[in-house]
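Hi there. Long-time user, first ticket. I'm pasting a complex I've been working with (about 834 residues overall). I'd like to know whether the download I got is complete or cut off, because the file seemed smaller than I expected. Thanks.
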Amino acid sequence: MNKLVGACMFGQSGGPTSVINSSAAGVFIEAMKHDCITEIYGAAHGIRGILEEEFYDIRKEDTKELMLLKNTPSSALGSVRYKLKAANVDETDYKRLLEVFKKYNIRYFFYNGGNDSMDTCNKVSKYLQKSGYECRVMGVPKTIDNDLDVTDHCPGYGSAAKYVSTTMMELKLDANVYDTPMITVVEIMGRHAGWLTAASALASYKGLGPDLIYLPEVAFDTDKFIKDVDKVMKSNGGKCMVAVSEGISDADGTLIAEKLGTNLAKDSFGHAQLGGVGAMLSNMCKDKFGCKTRAIEFSLMQRCGAHLASKTDVEEAFKAGATAVKYAVRGTTDKMVYFKREMKNGKYSCKMGVMSVAKAANTEKKVPMEWIVNDGTMLSKEYVDYAMPLIQGDCKAPLEDGLPRFARLNKVLAGKK
Amino acid sequence: MNKLVGACMFGQSGGPTSVINSSAAGVFIEAMKHDCITEIYGAAHGIRGILEEEFYDIRKEDTKELMLLKNTPSSALGSVRYKLKAANVDETDYKRLLEVFKKYNIRYFFYNGGNDSMDTCNKVSKYLQKSGYECRVMGVPKTIDNDLDVTDHCPGYGSAAKYVSTTMMELKLDANVYDTPMITVVEIMGRHAGWLTAASALASYKGLGPDLIYLPEVAFDTDKFIKDVDKVMKSNGGKCMVAVSEGISDADGTLIAEKLGTNLAKDSFGHAQLGGVGAMLSNMCKDKFGCKTRAIEFSLMQRCGAHLASKTDVEEAFKAGATAVKYAVRGTTDKMVYFKREMKNGKYSCKMGVMSVAKAANTEKKVPMEWIVNDGTMLSKEYVDYAMPLIQGDCKAPLEDGLPRFARLNKVLAGKK
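Hi, the file is complete. Here it is re-exported in full:
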């Protein structure tokens, strides 16, 4: 084992989740156990914080607060959506990164995010390798979209899925309360992969979920949609609940939101009142069925609803962070932590390994077509068996005055060198 | 004490809440303890179920399921929005009600709802009295709007307030995650009274809430709004979070949603893309500040989010139902249960009493103007002290496969007589 002594840098990137801070806690707490890690830095707003030499000295944080990160949603260090250009197109950022890495003797770099963030992680890793600067680079997966390849699932998905399925059950009870016809359309995040929308099927399997579920994996046809709703309305006493992915597109790949939105006039401020594809489909139903309809968007709540986090997800996210540090200290670099499911006697467990970060960066895992059933309107039992273990257990921040006590970091900037 | 022997009828009315079924459980479980109550009926869809002789035989339910009602959101028996005409205008419904009451020997009538439902309850009570038919009529309060008079607060409010404040804290963490300017506008229920929107101030007092809160109690001025936001943006690093009541109106009493919506063109289905006042204000901000803005609606989730119910609220709602039965059995009629707050050594407790149901029916309690501070944009410490005890404690349905196990009623219709 090649013992590498130096500072470690951790950054958060992409859309926040309920458990991305849990991985941060995992990285920080594990890093503190290793003498070879001299300083522990947390980049403010991901890669941008490194470029701008703005990062926090994590050793100045109270360990109790770092542990509270486990149940604090969103990205405590700040996130970023910054796409590094390819090094052979524009080397500026890479030169600057190398400069900063050298100046602070950063020998461990952990980057937490989804596909785009793994792309950043991969590019940085390859550049540092090429430059001959020894640094162990590890990706830590995160995304409510659950669309990273190879890994069985992604930290963040279980909690978002738990939010979606639980809330859907509650909404179903609410939407059915009057004895008049009613169509409810719930819009759920997911531009290309329908994993999160699929989670509403967990509620359906409990008898309290949507009657129809539409994912981006299946070409959406508005005429068929109306027929599907009509069928449900007739067989179901005039009630229909629909879950729809924000990213549903037609056979040509055009977003339905875009397609239906083209004719939209502007409001008094000159902005098209888009309001999402859910609102549009809800209006379409109002038009066709003449009954009460309602559009609901889970909006940011589905990704930051940490009060409904899955314990399985929180623990796995924490462990993913810690595992990245362990591997790096042992000499691994240029990898991403991934999850491997093991089922023994029907009992789920999650093993962690490492895979090529390059592979994680450039692939996108969709919901398997064979799991999408009922003419593209429901998920199969195979999906339910896949997702159910991921939403198990409750795990949330302690309460203070009946409200969550989230982590409060000191955020002491590391002294500039 | 005049012992009155006969059946009891319970109905749910108006918009559902997280705890309206908790009151149902309170009524049913208490009713079973009294020999003078022969049958226990639950009206399907409130007053309409009585008119149509459609009610469930609650004695055919499993007690375990009735107890699960405590943590099951929405109205398990079905709700209704049905306004009884005054008896001197049209007696038809009243005659029919009397007929049904006589046929089934209904001597106890419990009605659970807000102002409108108490109006129904009051009218039925007065008509039965006038007809000389002995029946004990009791209102059980319920409304997330918290706008019933005399009572310190209403069952349903605490849980909705807990949903609003907790979710607001999570959203605040999420909304601030990027290092770019951002305005978030969250729309909260409440047409005339701002109680529920006010609950977002609980998050502000924890340092993670909206910067600006607008209630229907204060005339809304869009120019002032833009100035308020501008001030926050400048002092707060380009971030602003706004909580706004759906019912905000201008000085003339015109709804802002209506005012801003008038110029809205129709979408491709011929419907104005209203999307609520939050979306309109968000667009207005986008126009004025040119930065990213986001509108979020808590929609039905704020009233059915039983997974975030307040234990205090759940227990009080249950007790309110039980108290109504106890009073009725002892001879009380024509009243509504109300809550009286007692503070001893800083410790909150809630006593229950009865008040005129007529009074509850026709009054509307608003947020006191002296609790609205910062030039109409924030709630005072007095409000926080008022609301904080109401959101205390967690209390939710048991989990089954990681999802809530809500009550499953048999709903056996009572045999028609």
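A couple of notes from our side: Confidence is low (pLDDT under 50) at residues 265-274 of chain B. The first strand of chain B starts at residue 6 and ends at 12.
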